[in-house]
Structure formats: C-alpha cells, structure tokens
Amino acid sequence: MPNAMDAIDRARTAVTERAELPGMSLMEHLEELRKRIIHSIVYVAIGFAIAYFFHERIVRFMVEPITRALRQNNMDTRLVYLNPIEPLNFYLKIAFFGGAILASPFVLYQVWLFISPGLYKQERRYVFPFMTATISLFFSGALLGYYYVYPRALTFLIHFGDQFKPMVTISEYMGLFVTVVLGLGVVFEMPILIFFLALFGIVSSGFLWKNIRYAILIIFVIAAILAPTPDPLSMVVFSAPMLLLYGISIGVAHMVHPDRRRARAAKAAGQP
Predict the structure, then answer these.
(1) Is the separation of the CB atoms in 229 and 173 below 8 Å?
(2) Which of 44, 199, 234, 242 could form a disulfide with 227, with the two C-beta atoms 3.0–4.6 Å apart?
(3) Separation between Cα atoms, residue 155 and residue 144, nearest integer Å
(4) Closest by Cα among 87, 86, 27, 91 to 56
(5) Helix, coil or strand: residue 80
C-alpha cells in the first residue's frame, strides 16, 4: 500500500506541475480531442478499405498456421461456419483488424499530437523514438506469436485431440488468433507505457525494482490468460518475453525520469 500511495502522490504532483504549463483551455482540449478522434477514424476507414480489398490474401495468411497443423495430422484443412452470415462477419472483422494495423502509425501520431501540448519542449523530441519503438515492439510481438508461439500451440492442441474429428469454426479460430498474435503485440508495448509513466514522473526505476515480485505475479497471470494451452511450456513462452520487457522498462524509466533528466542537464551546465 505505501508504494501504491507513493505512485498516486507522484501522479498527482506530475499533473499539478503540468497544469502550470501554458496551454489550452478545457474547451480547446475537447476540440483538439474531437479533431484527433475524427482524423483517427478516417485513417482506420482508409485502412479498412485497403484491407478489405486484400481480404482473401489476409485470410490465407491467417489460416496458414492451422492449415499446416491440420495437414500434418492428415485432417481436413477447411474451416467451417455455423451461421450463413458468419463468413461475411469474418471478412469484415479481418478488414477491420487489418485496417487498424495499417492505420496504427497515423493513429499513434494523432495520439502524440494530442498529448504533446502537455509535454515540456525537451520532451517533445521523443516523438520519433516513440513512433519507431511503438511500431517495432508491436510487430515484434505479433511476429513472435505468428511464427513461433501460435503454430506450436496449434500443433500441440490438434495432436492432443487427434482421436477426434476437428470442426474449427472461422469465428472461434479468429478469436484465438487475435488473442495470441495481436495479444502478444499489445503486451510488447509495456516499455512504451512505462516510458510515459516515467516521463511524467509517476513511476521510477526504483519503484519498478522494489515491486518486481508483484510484477512477476501479474505477468504470469497475463500469460495464463493469453496462453492457448494450459501447459507450463506455453506459460514460460509467454511470460519470458514479458519479463525481459519489464527489465528493459526499468532501464527506460531510469533514463527518462525527470530527476535523471535534471541531473544530466545540471551536469551538462557544469553545475555540481
């Protein structure tokens, strides 16, 4: 509890300090938020149209892991549906997720434009590292899930039930695909979240290190939710990257925390 209260106090202090920055009024903030949301929706809509145009290729890319796993066990590789409208919904969902991924760099830039007025001038230079790291981490997690975690999980599950005839519906398959592949992509954004919390002075590297045992517990809980199989190997495969990312996040917090930045500025100015 004391650690949690300290974090709350630091958050309150950070908000108070930034409230003193010259900026926009409440109505101007709301107008800016509306503009950024509209722009983001437009970008996602454009991405949706592009993704729907290529939806057949995207579907082939998505079903490749289960097709391979079923073929290895000499099973029918076609997915099934239980409702006549299910294929249409499937294609629309494919186009939506694909469009959101295509539009993500532009949406992230809109997020940055919205929060940048609340940043100090020297903090705004992080825009390009922020964009590069966010996109790289997401795709790293998603590719790890697609090429390593997901195929092995499917192979294990289908081989485990090889005495039965599988009838995998397209909706169930998509739900599992999104949970594992895109879920890992989102999990890999942990350093970005810590980056902003540390940038605003809400958390520090010391705070993260002191609470590492709680972080490990939360990481294993998240791994248990995302892992498609309950075996310990899947838990380790999911939790190991998150533990590594948590360690990286401690280093990120140490570098961008306001106290650390002030110390570097004082050293550069020749102050003791």
Answers:
(1) no
(2) 234
(3) 16
(4) 91
(5) strand
Alpha carbons 157 and 165: distance in angstroms, whole number: 13
Question: DSSP 3-state assignment of 270?
Answer: coil
Q: For every one of its 272 residues, what pLDDT tens digit does the chain have, with 9 covering 90 and above?
A: 445 555 555 555 554 454 444 555 667 777 888 888 999 999 999 999 999 999 899 999 999 988 888 888 888 888 898 888 998 999 999 999 999 989 988 888 888 888 777 666 666 677 777 788 888 888 888 888 888 888 888 888 787 777 878 888 898 888 888 888 888 888 888 888 888 778 777 788 888 888 888 888 888 888 877 776 666 767 777 788 888 888 888 888 888 776 665 665 556 555 55
3-state secondary structure of 169: strand
pTM of the predicted model, to two decimals? 0.74
Rg (CA), the chain: 22
The one-letter amino acid code at 180 reads: V
